[in-house]
Amino acid sequence: MLSTPVIAGSQDIGPYAVLEDLGPAPFGTAYLALDARRDRTAILKVIPPSRPGMGQEITPWEILLEETAALTRIYHRGLPELYEVREHEGSLLVAFEFVDGQTLHELLARGVRPDRAQLIDWGCQILEALHEAHSEGLLHRHVGEDSVLLAPDGQVVLTGFGLTQLVFDPLTALSPEQLTGEPLTPQSDLYAVGSLLRRLTFASRLKSGGGVAGSNGRDPLLKVLARATFPDPSARFRSAAEMAEALRLAGRARPVSVPSPAPLGVLSGATPAGPAGAAVTPFPSAARFRAEGSEDGDRRWALLLLAVTLLLMLSVIATGWFLIGGDAATESAGAIRSAIESIPGP
Fold it and tell me: Nearest-CA neighbor of 255 among 120, 122, 121?
């Protein structure tokens, strides 16, 4: 987060001692503060009566305030705990748990790219937190890289519900119903999660130079993300829990590999090795046809040359018989005829 250091304890806001000015936030200003009553660090959001930025917010203030108060009923390790919502000198104070971690936006800026298993794990953790919020009637509305924190222990924390939003996330994917001004539903949050995971998938693919998060071929993960980001909300998953289960199944399933083009050796007559090292010949190669054709052709040429030779010999003998006659010529001709008859056919 962008911050402007201040002198610790130099400014008090109600029972909170300001430790650091975190800068402008939606509707107000955010601070890192110390709750002197319980000696705990908190994120303190101060919203003045004028509530700057409300003109750009499509959700009514009363709904945001009601949803923020509902956070006190939720205890989930994937959601920051809301400490209190109170008034102070005309301003509204919203104090919630400080989570030590980095946003996905910060991690991506550092070049961190999740592999396929990590991508699915992050997605499932986000959806589990959403399921808890949806069960209490809360919508997030702007799930994105800046609203997802990754703690040092690998825990994913989803921030930004209600009035706890700290940053305007320009990378948040707006669902089709948001763009048309239709009422938002839990499926709108699922659309944002699916879009976020698709962006992470694409970033991982660029880094690995291959398929989804380093895998090749058709991945069932892509089918899950396609359903989550379907334009029609009714065609998406019915709940965050259902989408999380689909992600887990995609994580256990092996991607279907796309067959690679046949190597040139197969087309030139080489025989590839099978799984157990045995020769595999899916179809006769061109070289085999050429070899068999060459062998038959050589045999025919040899027989043709032999026949022509014998015919020439017969012609010589016949000529001699007419010229001189005699039994010797007759016997020679009979021997030659016997030799011709003994030649096997082609």
Answer: 120
Would you place residue 196 in the very low, low, confident or very high pLDDT band (cuts 50, 70, 90)? very high
Mean pLDDT across the chain:
79
pLDDT at 54: 53
Question: Which ranges in 149-219 belong to alpha helices (H)?
Answer: 176-179, 186-208
- Phi, psi torsion values for 146, nearest 5 degrees: -85, -10
Mean pLDDT of 44-56: 79
Which of the 8 DSSP states describes residue 68? H
pLDDT in tens, 272-315: 444 444 443 333 444 443 444 445 556 666 666 677 677 777 76
| pLDDT above 60: residue 42 | yes
Single out the residue of 57, 17, 19 nearest to residue 36, CA to CA. 17
DSSP 3-state assignment of 304?
A: helix
pTM for this entry: 0.69
* HEC secondary structure over 234-293: HHCCCCHHHHHHHHHHHHHCCCECCCCCCCHHHHCCCCCECCCCCECCCCCCHHHHHHHH
Which residue is associated with the tokens 């989930």? Answer: 76
Q: List the structure tokens of 272.
A: 């590839």
71, two tokens: 């956070």
Containing 321, the helix (H) or strand (E) segment is: helix 286-324
Q: In the chain, what percentage of residues exceed pLDDT 90?
A: 56
Of 62, 58, 73, 21, the residue nearest 43 (C-alpha):
21
Report the Cα–Cα distance between both ends of the chain, in Å, rounded. 89
What would the two tokens of residue 218 be? 């058709």
Of residues 162, 138, 146, 247, the one with CA closest to residue 196: 146
In the sheet with 148-150, reading across from the earlier edge strand, the strands are: 102-103, 148-150, 156-158
- Tell me how far apart the 2 most distant CA atoms of the chain are, in Å: 147
Residue 85: name the closest of 43, 24, 34 by CA.
43
CA dist 97 and 79 (Å) reads 9
